[in-house]
Amino acid sequence: MNQPNKNNKNIEQVNYDIRPREVLIILDDGNKVGPLGRNEAVRFAEEKGLDLLLVSAASNPPVAKLVDYGKYKYEQKKKDKENKKNQHVTENKEMRLRTGIGEHDLEFKAKKVREFLTDGNRVKISLKFRGREVARPEYGKETLDKFFGYIEDLAKIEKEPQLNGLFLDMYVVPKK
């Protein structure tokens, strides 16, 4: 038994595939015709050399539009391709530091964070405390401030440094 796929709700209803018995037709110039029976509406579209596309099945009566379906599908594909091309997914990157980190190591890690920021990513800078270092979070804050000095021309602080267990976390995002 061949049953229609009920999971795919994005299937467009065109011409004789339109389920509602009556439809209201919208012409290219915005004028409305109908409501007409489904078969009568399809014949009306064929007389004009166009296809009948169901736009809104939820309205009463359902609304259909006269279109050249091949051209319509081409335009939709083109629009989807353009949207996909313009879409940028921002990722969350993380850089881990320690309180006693050396100057050169700090510069090196800052260089990597600069790369993340130029790619448009959000960066979480985590400073890990060991042992009794947790009792002196101001040392960690100093290290984070020093680190931010290397990247402040590219970044702005999204979330101020905050102590989470053994980590002092700060979030930075690229400047617009």
Automatic annotation (TrEMBL):
Alphabetized, the UniProt keywords read: Cytoplasm, Initiation factor, Protein biosynthesis
What are its GO cellular component terms?
cytosol; membrane
Q: Report the Gene3D superfamilies cross-referenced here.
A: Translation initiation factor 3 (IF-3), C-terminal domain, Translation initiation factor 3 (IF-3), N-terminal domain
One of the protein's GO biological processes = ribosome disassembly
Query: What molecular function does GO assign, one term?
Result: ribosome binding
A Pfam family matched in the record = IF3_N
PROSITE patterns membership: IF3
What domain of life does the UniProt record list for this protein's source?
A: Bacteria
Q: Which residues form the Translation initiation factor 3 C-terminal domain?
A: 91-175
Q: What does the UniProt entry say about where the protein is found?
A: Cytoplasm
NCBIfam families membership: infC (TIGR00168)
HAMAP family, A to Z: IF_3
Assigned protein family: Belongs to the IF-3 family.
Q: What does this protein do?
A: IF-3 binds to the 30S ribosomal subunit and shifts the equilibrium between 70S ribosomes and their 50S and 30S subunits in favor of the free subunits, thus enhancing the availability of 30S subunits on which protein synthesis initiation begins.
This protein is called Translation initiation factor IF-3
